[in-house]
From TrEMBL:
The keyword Iron-sulfur does not apply. PANTHER family: FUCOSE MUTAROTASE (PTHR31690). One of its GO terms (molecular function) is fucose binding. InterPro entries: RbsD-like_sf, RbsD/FucU_mutarotase, RbsD_FucU. It catalyses: alpha-L-fucose = beta-L-fucose; beta-D-ribopyranose = beta-D-ribofuranose. This is Ribose ABC transporter. Keywords: Isomerase. One of its GO terms (biological process) is fucose metabolic process. The keyword Aminoacyl-tRNA synthetase does not apply. The lineage of its organism: Bacteria, Pseudomonadati, Pseudomonadota, Alphaproteobacteria, Hyphomicrobiales. It comes from the Bacteria.
Length: 149
């Protein structure tokens, strides 16, 4: 255990988050996402796991992970097939955690399912959560921490 670090952030996850650089993507995915096969194509090459809900994992990750302020697609969600504008409860919960972490409303774009898979394959890594609800899949682009922060 470490002081000030959410215990959900295991050593493998912390190592990956620390290794990522500005502009790298992190995928946080539900239990139905093809995490293992997609993760094999990422920079890290293997799936990481945190057995908690998507919102809990996002809260833990965003406690140490800066979001990219230079792009419009720093946070993305997988669209519901056939209903791209619908925001299910799992996505609303994650949006609330993002807004809380940033201290302000933060835009989340939506990405069509197969386009999301393609973005995920180009990511640095995939964290598979214990989220069992559908469409609990998100992409987060890493930002920077200024020298004075």
């Amino acid at each position: 255990m470490l002081k000030g670090i959410d215990p959900k952030l295991n050593a493998d996850v912390l190592r990956a988050l620390r290794a990522m650089g500005h502009g790298d993507d992190l995928i946080i995915a539900d239990t139905n996402f093809p995490s293992d096969s997609v993760a094999r194509e990422t920079v890290l090459g293997k799936v990481l796991r945190i057995d908690a809900s998507a919102a809990e994992v996002v809260k833990a990750v965003l406690s140490v992970y800066p979001l990219d302020t230079f792009v419009d697609d720093a946070v993305a969600r997988m669209e519901i097939v056939g209903s791209p504008d619908e925001v299910p409860p799992v996505q609303a919960e994650v949006q609330a955690e993002i807004d809380a972490a940033e201290g302000k409303p933060w835009p989340m774009i939506s990405i069509e399912r197969y386009a999301f898979y393609e973005r995920a394959k180009k990511a640095y890594c995939v964290i598979q959560t214990g989220e069992r609800r559908f469409y609990g899949c998100f992409a987060f682009r890493k930002g920077v921490i200024p020298p004075d922060a």
